[in-house]
Amino acid sequence: MPRPPMARSKKAVVLLSGGLDSATVLYWALAQGWQPKALIFDYGQRHSREIASAKALCKKTGVAYDVIPVKLPWRGSSLLDKGSALPSAKSTRDIGAQIPSTYVPGRNTLFLSYGLSCAEALGAEVVMIGANALDYSGYPDCRPDFISAMAKVYKLGTKAGRQGKPIRIVAPLLKLSKSQIVKLGIRLGVPYQLTWSCYQGGKKPCGTCDSCLLRTKGFREAGIADPTIYRNIKIG
């Protein structure tokens, strides 16, 4: 008796930073039946704490990963230059009005390009990114028009795209608030205690950088306790 045909593999590449958003995307991908391969980027950021978190998430889920070293010797961001002061907003109302010094020039363009190369080589259908355009720091490479433009690059700049099977960019959190992301992650069972959002290194989050403020705003509005301990946070 012939065997039934095997279900087509749903391979995906997930760009994993170790933060709240990308962790949620990883668990969302698994819940949707995708078989993810995680790419973790070591691009000279101020600390390696988020890389450790990304690895811990992969270990927890059994997801294969690669750590990709990317050298940016020209710096151009307070996330790359420890001598530069990190922005510290008084409240979340002050975040996003301007592009902050933590913006890394071309970062998501680079990451999505690596994701595209990996996906085409592995035969993956999608590249997933945790970009968010609502409760975010104002980065230009986290906005819908940028994602749409990169989707055209994916179609025009690859063998797969030219043969009519373009690799897709999937950004499931793009239009969600932080509280909606937190609620989604809790439903999916994301172990947020393993994630790291703070721009500073150390054992505890600083509680005052943009990323800490936005994360705490999300958990508070969701009515859920953040398993990561923050201190000295004012949410306006």
Name the descriptors.
7 helices, alpha/beta, 35% helix, 11% strand, 236 residues, 5-stranded parallel sheet, Rossmann fold, disordered C terminus
Can you characterise this structure?
The protein has 7 helices and 5 strands, in the order βαβαβαβααβαα. It has 236 residues and is of the alpha/beta class. A 5-stranded parallel sheet has the order 3-2-1-4-5, with helices on both faces. α1 (20-31) links the parallel β1 (11-15) and β2.
Strand content: 5-15%
Helix % is 25-40%
Question: Total domains, how many?
Answer: 1
Give the integer mean of the pLDDT values.
90
Going across the biggest sheet, name each strand in turn.
3-2-1-4-5
Note poorly predicted spans.
1-7, 232-236
- For the termini, the CA-CA separation is 67 Å
Question: Given this structure, which CATH class is correct?
Answer: Alpha Beta
Brief sketch in words of this structure:
With 236 residues, the chain is of the alpha/beta class. It is 35% helix and 11% strand.
Secondary-structure map:
Elements (H helix, E strand, L loop, with lengths): L10 E5 L4 H12 L3 E8 L6 H13 L2 E6 L37 H16 L3 E3 L15 H13 L2 H4 L5 E3 L7 H11 L21 H13 L14
Parallel strand pairs: 1-2, 1-4, 2-3, 4-5
Helix pairs in contact: 1-6, 6-7
